Every structure is written in C-alpha cells, then in structure tokens.
C-alpha cells in the first residue's frame, strides 16, 4: 500500500497466532501498514478484528502463547530482534502506549507525579528534582487544572477524564516518536471524550509524533485520523485517507459499517445491517473473510483465494475483487 | 393472583400516562468515621418528575453519574424511593390494591428491564430457554406452557428455537445474548420495558440489528419503552421524547425534534456539540465544555450545571432554576429559558 521514503513504522506480513494445547486462534493474518512521521493512522474494526493485537505486537506486549511472524520496524529498528534490555529502552522511549482503562494502566499505590517521574528518570537518567519539574510541565501540557496539587494525587482521587490525561502525560514523558493509543476515549463521557480527542490531536501536532489509534467508533476516527485502515478477521480490508474513505468506501464491509452506524436524520428509517457475525478465527481465512456476509459475493472467485489489495487511486486500496485496479 | 395469560386491560384509557413519576428522590449515605456516621450523601436522584406516555419511547441521556441508571432502578423498584410517588396507569405503585394501588409483584410483571451487560444478566448454568421460562413459571404458568412461550419468544427475537433453545449463555455471541435478554424481558407480557444501555456493549453492525429488532417488537407487542443511553445518535433514532439528566436532575425534556433542533439548556447544547462528526472536513477545534461532571456528593448550589456553564451569572448560584415551559411539552430547567428569572439573557430568549 502507500509507502513513504522512510516510514516511522513499517509492518510487513504481520501475523499473530495464539496457540494453546487445544486450539489456535489466527488473530492477525498478514497485515501490511506504514506510518509516516507526524501522521495519525486509525485502525478501525469491530471486536475480534485483530486491531488491538496488531497494536500490542508493535510493542511486543503479547503473551508467550502468541506466535508473531513478519516484519515490525519502528524508527528504523527491527522490533522482533530486540533483546529484553533493548525492549525496555524502546518502550516508553521511542514508543509509548495509552490504554482504554486508565485505572488499570496506572499504578494505584503511586502518585501521578511519581509515575511520570519514574519514566523520566529511567529513560533520561534525570535527577529526582529534574524529573519532578518535568512531571509538572507534563501535567500542564495535558491541561490538568491545578497541576501542582495533582502531582501528589493518587489515580483513584482523579475523575475519569483527568486520569486519562494523566496517563497521556506518563506516555508523553520521554517525547516518544510513536504513540500507540488503544481506544483511549471509549470509556469516557461524550463531553470529556471530545476534550481528550482534541487534546491528543493538539499534542500530536505540537510534538510531531506519529500516532496509531485503534477504535471501533467511526466518529472518533473521523475526528482524529489522517488515514484509516479498516480491519476485518485479522486483515486490513481497506485503507485510505479519512475523508475519501468516510465519503465512499470501496470495500463492502466498511460500506456496511457506515450504513449500520446510527447518525442524525435516520429517524423512522430502517437501519441497514450486516447480516451474520464475524467468522471464527480458528482457521486462517482461505478466501475473502467477509464473503459469507457480503451482499455482492460471487461464489467461486470470492472464496477461492484471499483477494489481493487493489488500488484504484494512489493512496487508497481495498481487498475486494470488485474494486477496479 | 391474576393468571399471567389474561390480557392486561388498558385501565386508565389512552390519555392516562403509563407511568407518572413525581418528586423522585434517592440519596445514598456514605458511612465513615468511628461510629459509622453518615459523613456525606450522594445525591443520585433529586426531585425528578416525568411521565411516560402510552406507546411512546422515552429516551434518557446523560453522562456517567447523572443518575440515569439509578432512575431506571427506581422505576423498576430494585431500589426503594426516599421520596416521591409512582403512579402506573392510574394506580399507585406499591400500595394496597384495595385503595386503588398496584402491588409490587404485579407491577414488576408489567414492567421489565434489559441491562447493558448481556452476560452478567443471564444465569450461566441455565439453558437460555429455561432462563426465559423462569419468570412465567414464578408467576404461575405451568412448565410446559412456559417453555412453549419461551420458544415463541426466541423465534420472535430472531433466534431459531430448534437451534438455540438448549444453549447456554457462553455459547452465544454478545448480540445473541442481548436478544435472549430482550426475549426474557418480554416473557411476562409486560407493557413497559426499561432498556438500560441495551446496545452500548455491542459492535456497530450488531447494534443496528438489535435496534431494528426493538422497533419491530414494540410494534408487534404494543410496548412502551424507556431507553437509557449515553449515545445521542441512538437516542435520537429510537425515541419519541427525550429527557436529559445532569447530576441527578432533569435538565431538559421534550419531543425529540425540539430537543435536537432547538435545545434550550446549555448542557444539552454542549452534549449535542460533543458528538464526533463523521465528516473530517468539519472537525471542531475547541471542545464545547471543559472539565468533568462534578461529583454528585457535593453538587453546586443553585443550578447544578453552573460550574461548567459558559453563561453562568450570580443568579445561577443563588436560585435553582425552575422548569420553563417552551411549548409543545418542551421544558428546560435553565434561568435563560425563564423570562422572569433575572438572568441577563433570559429576556432575549423569551422575546
């Protein structure tokens, strides 16, 4: 798909299987993605599409039962080849991650200030005093009111929105080149979600970070993404600039998803649905994984082989045999 | 006891609200200190009054902590009221039937609830057919008939009984489980169904299936819905009237079109403006509101929204606003909507 000269992140044929004694789950089945410096890529997909597993593979956060294959390069370094020491420098230094639930991502027995300071001291070998000053600076950066007082607060003393901001501050502590965000606004209220989204976009522009943002919410993707990759059954089925993709998806799955998303002006109309449910991933897909639910399925061609990505216009691509190119 | 089969008559006539609530209040004390004294009170629901009309869908929206789920539990009488009255089709809820009331058991038969967490609300050790047949059996229906009704309902919610009836909850997907919960809620042939975030945990493509199902069932069984959600788009889609809650109070209530097209309360306006736009060309640059909703333990004096309101004036801290009538059943609890309130923007709005 689109390939800038020196991508910040480069995934080639990434596949992740979870192998246990009695079953194997093919969570990710050949994902190719690139991310340029300063770009925001949204991975959009429903539960079980492999979007979060892809994100965790980028930071080698998957459990031992996961078999990861393919190329993962971040900032020119091969993530798969790193040893434990190199990984520790890499995580929190070059790459940082924010999660959906800040209460489980933050340590409940340390104050916010201590948790930010720890990251700074570990990666930048800063003194305690420097780390404290940096922590205060970061809390102000993420627009936490009365930041000085909040440094001494424990996670449970903060509201949901402030906790999420504190987690962003921890992640940004060492000015990462790449920020991975796993549904960071899903658990927040509507009025707080938009605040955090706008904050993330502002920080991303200020710091020139690349961001990979995983979400299931089309509206959130529309608000923050430069480019969107739609995942289904462990594959990227469509990829393209956010405006073009939202305006007219090429692949029938994102088209169905857009039709099934309730928005203003649909009152009294019947919602279009995607019949059925996503496939079981106990076997790797051999044909188009969306074929059983697809309204435009053509029997032998769709199920014979996994459709290769076709690119009708530069920068856009979809894995569907009906797409020209 | 009335046998569950008999059709429940529309006792109050079409003009009588199905459920009328007045002055509903629920405070939760927080115990602490040496002798377990009450050190604070969570004012979860404070003086909430509204009516649910026959055959309508009333949407309730609000952020976490605004009291919408507590309101649902009060409506279902899973919690006892601290104050207030509930009248179900002209009969006082929880009162003796000889004084013109309706007992709790009979009330709960006519009012059923669907919860957000589809897995936690089903018994993992019962096949879904038995879960659905459980309540009719408790209410006196013989086992065979209860099972037959369960199978009919499974078919009605789109799960083929032959294939699904003997399955356990863990053998179903989230959307299928939520269908089972809906079937179970309908098993007693209720008139009012409370839906507490019924589609929030579902994927978008499944959400649309369940919403279509809810619309179909409402028509087929002549139901009335109270639909609680934080998703404003879903509420707009399904509701006839919408109630906006903020910190335990009703901020605004009205027909869905007036609320979405002419919101009068600044909180409703902010809530509507917070929806992410699907169009990247129309991205917002400034958030409509700053800060989080305050803690309901110590709500602000006067108008509870004034701490986040861009139009707050001294009068907002002094007096709690009354519900101003904007016509057509549209009420807003804001000094700006009330011509005589003394707020500098009140007169302009009234003119």
From TrEMBL, chain B:
Organism: uncultured Acetobacteraceae bacterium
SUPFAM superfamilies: P-loop containing nucleoside triphosphate hydrolases
Domain ABC transporter: 19-272
Molecular function via GO: ATP binding; ATP hydrolysis activity
Catalytic activity of the protein: glutathione(out) + ATP + H2O = glutathione(in) + ADP + phosphate + H(+)
Main enzyme class: translocase
Main localization (coarse): membrane
Keyword Hydrolase among record annotations: yes
Keyword Nucleotide-binding attributed: yes
Membrane topology designation: Peripheral membrane protein
GO BP, one annotated term: peptide transport
EC number per UniProt: 7.4.2.10
Protein name (record): Glutathione import ATP-binding protein GsiA
Family classification: Belongs to the ABC transporter superfamily. Glutathione importer (TC 3.A.1.5.11) family.
Region Disordered, annotated ranges: 272-302
Annotated GO CC locations: plasma membrane
Superkingdom, natural source: Bacteria
Cellular location(s): Cell inner membrane
Keywords, sorted A to Z: ATP-binding, Cell inner membrane, Cell membrane, Hydrolase, Membrane, Nucleotide-binding, Repeat, Translocase, Transport
Lineage summary: Bacteria, Pseudomonadati, Pseudomonadota, Alphaproteobacteria, Acetobacterales
């Amino acid at each position: 798909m689109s390939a800038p000269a020196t991508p910040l992140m480069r995934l080639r044929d990434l596949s992740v299987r979870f192998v246990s004694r009695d079953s194997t789950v093919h969570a990710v089945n050949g994902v190719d993605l690139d991310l340029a410096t300063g770009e925001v890529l949204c991975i959009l997909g429903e539960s079980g599409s492999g979007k979060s597993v892809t994100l965790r593979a980028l930071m080698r956060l998957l459990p031992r039962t996961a078999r990861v294959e393919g190329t993962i390069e971040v900032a020119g370094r091969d993530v798969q080849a790193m040893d434990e020491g190199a990984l520790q420098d890499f995580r929190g230094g070059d790459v940082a991650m924010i999660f959906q639930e800040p209460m489980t991502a933050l340590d409940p027995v340390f104050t916010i200030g201590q948790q930010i300071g720890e990251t700074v001291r570990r990666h930048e070998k800063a003194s305690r005093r420097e780390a404290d000053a940096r922590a205060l600076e970061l809390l102000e950066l993420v627009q936490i009111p009365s930041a000085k007082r909040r440094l001494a607060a424990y996670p449970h003393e903060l509201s949901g929105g402030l906790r999420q901001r504190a987690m962003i501050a921890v992640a940004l502590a060492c000015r990462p080149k790449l920020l991975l965000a796993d549904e960071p606004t899903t658990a927040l209220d509507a009025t707080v979600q938009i605040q955090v989204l706008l904050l993330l976009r502002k920080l991303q522009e200020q710091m020139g970070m690349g961001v990979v943002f995983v979400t299931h919410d089309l509206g959130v993707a529309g608000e923050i993404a430069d480019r969107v990759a739609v995942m289904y059954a462990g594959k990227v089925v469509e990829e393209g600039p956010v405006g073009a993709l939202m305006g007219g998806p090429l692949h029938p799955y994102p088209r169905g998803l857009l039709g099934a998303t309730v928005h203003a002006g649909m009152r009294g109309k019947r919602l279009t649905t995607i019949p059925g449910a996503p496939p079981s991933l106990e076997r790797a897909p051999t044909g188009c994984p969306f074929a059983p639910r697809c309204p435009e399925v053509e029997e032998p061609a769709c199920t014979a082989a996994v459709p290769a990505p076709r690119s009708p216009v530069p920068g856009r691509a979809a894995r569907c045999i009906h797409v020209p190119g | 006891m009335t046998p569950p089969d008999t059709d429940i008559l529309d006792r109050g006539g079409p003009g009588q609200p199905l459920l009328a609530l007045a002055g509903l209040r629920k405070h939760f004390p927080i115990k602490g200190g040496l002798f377990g004294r009450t050190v604070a009170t969570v004012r979860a629901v404070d003086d909430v009054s509204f009516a649910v009309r026959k055959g309508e869908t009333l949407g309730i929206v609000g952020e976490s902590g605004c009291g919408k789920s507590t309101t649902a539990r009060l409506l279902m009488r899973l919690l006892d009221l601290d104050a207030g009255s509930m009248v179900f089709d002209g009969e006082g809820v929880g009162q003796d039937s000889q004084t013109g009331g309706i007992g709790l058991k009979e009330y709960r038969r006519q009012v059923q609830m669907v919860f957000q967490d589809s897995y936690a609300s089903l018994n993992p050790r019962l096949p879904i057919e038995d879960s659905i047949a459980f309540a009719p059996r408790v209410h006196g229906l013989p086992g065979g008939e209860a099972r037959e009704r369960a199978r009919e309902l499974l078919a009605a919610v789109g799960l083929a009984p032959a294939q699904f009836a003997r399955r356990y909850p863990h053998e179903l997907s989230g959307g299928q489980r939520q269908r089972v919960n809906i079937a179970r809620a309908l098993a007693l042939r209720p008139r009012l169904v409370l839906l507490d975030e019924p589609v929030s945990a579902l994927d978008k493509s499944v959400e649309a299936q369940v919403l279509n199902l809810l619309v179909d069932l409402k028509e087929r069984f002549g139901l009335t819905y109270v639909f609680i959600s934080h998703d404003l788009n879903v509420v707009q889609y399904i509701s006839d009237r919408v109630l906006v809650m903020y910190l335990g109070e009703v901020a605004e209530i009205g027909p869905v079109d007036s609320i979405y097209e002419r919101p009068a309360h600044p909180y409703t306006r902010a809530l509507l403006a917070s929806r992410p736009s699907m169009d990247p060309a129309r991205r917002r640059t400034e958030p409509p509101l700053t800060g989080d909703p305050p803690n309901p333990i110590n709500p602000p004096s006067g108008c509870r929204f004034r701490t986040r309101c861009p139009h707050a004036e001294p009068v907002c801290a002094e007096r709690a606003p009354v519900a101003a009538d904007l016509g057509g059943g549209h009420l807003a609890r804001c000094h700006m909507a009330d011509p005589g309130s003394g707020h500098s923007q009140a007169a302009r709005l009234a003119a």
